[in-house]
């Protein structure tokens, strides 16, 4: 599991979106960081643990072509 250090004023959802590019894993990150759930705004150098997920991007061949 990776981690990042928050900067003063960061929010957990901002960090999740910046790291994963989506909020799909927000619940998992919240579970991994239960001690941070009491804060709406993080403090400088709060440690945020980020579970490992593989992000696979679909290739152009995987899509559906609507105009053939």
Task: Please outline the helices and strands.
Layout (H helix, E strand, L loop, with lengths): L1 E4 L6 H9 L5 H7 L14 E4 L18
Antiparallel strand pairs: 1-2
Structure, briefly:
The chain is α+β, with helices and mostly antiparallel strands. Helices cover about 25% and strands about 10% of the residues.
Which features would summarize this protein structure in a list?
single chain, 68 residues, alpha+beta, 2 helices, 2 strands, elongated
Structural description of this entry:
The chain is α+β, with helices and mostly antiparallel strands and 68 residues long. It has one domain (2-53). It is built from 2 helices and 2 strands. It has helices at 12-20, 26-32; strands spanning 2-5, 47-50. The protein has a two-stranded antiparallel sheet. The longest helix is centred in the first third of the chain and has 9 residues, at 12-20. The model has no long low-confidence stretch (mean pLDDT 87).
Strand order of the largest sheet: 1-2
Number of domains: 1
Please provide the count of β strands.
2
Spatial extent as radius of gyration: 16 Å
């Amino acid at each position: 599991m990776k981690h990042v250090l928050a900067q003063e004023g960061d929010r957990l959802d901002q960090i999740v979106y910046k790291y994963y590019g989506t909020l799909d894993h927000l619940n998992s990150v919240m579970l991994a960081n239960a001690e941070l759930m009491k804060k709406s705004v993080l403090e400088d150098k709060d440690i945020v643990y980020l579970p490992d997920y593989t992000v696979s991007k679909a290739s152009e061949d995987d899509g559906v072509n609507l105009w053939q």
